[in-house]
Amino acid sequence: MLKNLSFGLDKLNYKQMKKLLFTLSVSLLFCFNIFAQNELLKEEDLVEEKDYLTLKEAMKNPAKVYKLDLSNQNLSELPTEILQFYNLQILNLYGNNIKVIPKDIKMLSHLQYLNLGNNKISRLPKEIESLVNLVMIDLEDNMLENLPENIVSLRFLKNLAIGGNNIVQLPKDIGNLQSLQDLTMPKNKITSLPKSIGKLKMLRNFDASKNNLKKLPKTLCRLTNLNICDLEFNKINKLPNCLYKLKSLSHLNLSHNSLKNLPKSLCKSKSLKTLYLSHNRIGKIPEQIFGMNQVIDIQLNNNEISKIPTEILNLDNLESFDIRNNNIPKDELNRVKKDFSSKNIKVL
User: Fold this and answer.
1) Taking a C-beta distance cutoff of 8 angstroms, is the pair 253, 276 a contact?
2) Which of 25, 170, 278, 294 has its CA 20 to 30 Å from the CA of residue 231?
């Protein structure tokens, strides 16, 4: 390359020579920075690295800064000095007053963990897609109304926390986040879930509580690794018949919705251990529950139930059964408590 560049240098005038040297110097500096950057550290190695708690301390040796914690320091903007820490892999800016994330955030290409929670951020720059090594990003308790569509290109992202914002909808291609394991988005204004959510094959924890969801897409049933699903405080009045296909689901919270019944196929679930259905409009205990012998905790309080079928006693692993604040006659309730106590089942 240098041999080719040297060809004809004697024919260049002073201005052309100066411009060429400047371009070369910038290019060489860029290459130097690339080779100077260490490989990404594994989580166990990052734990051993020093936590820098002030910019002043970090600026003494920028190349050695892997972890920077500037949380709760009343910052109104992202300090430009941070952009010099080209090996930075953990950045905590939680609890400040930051409103804008600059486009230059793309320079921190080694970032793996980014905490921007509890600030005043109203939008993210599209340059967020340049943080290709992100494993976790916390955006909770900000002022976001949406997420940039290109955030779905972060193929190593495992944890996305966006609760406590004003988000109305998720990116339609959210399913492209193939590594995502935890998606927490409570306390937003989301009215529906994109069909592509069914592509999140690695998802284990899903929290969409305290939103405005009315129904769930059938594609949700493709999340075969989903272990915890929290959908309380929504407006859901009907569930997809395929929920039993969530073969890893152990905890399902549907409290504070508008459900009147459950899909019959739910009895096919072999993994569900806790089922929360309090504060709905259920008039009778769904027969589907009787087939879920592995369940240990059922909450049906604050519904419209008037009778407890004796079949409920056939649930051999049941430990707790909450039926408070229903329409059950007192003598019926006393009978149930007596029957359940003989099997060491706690009745509330």
Assistant:
1) yes
2) 294
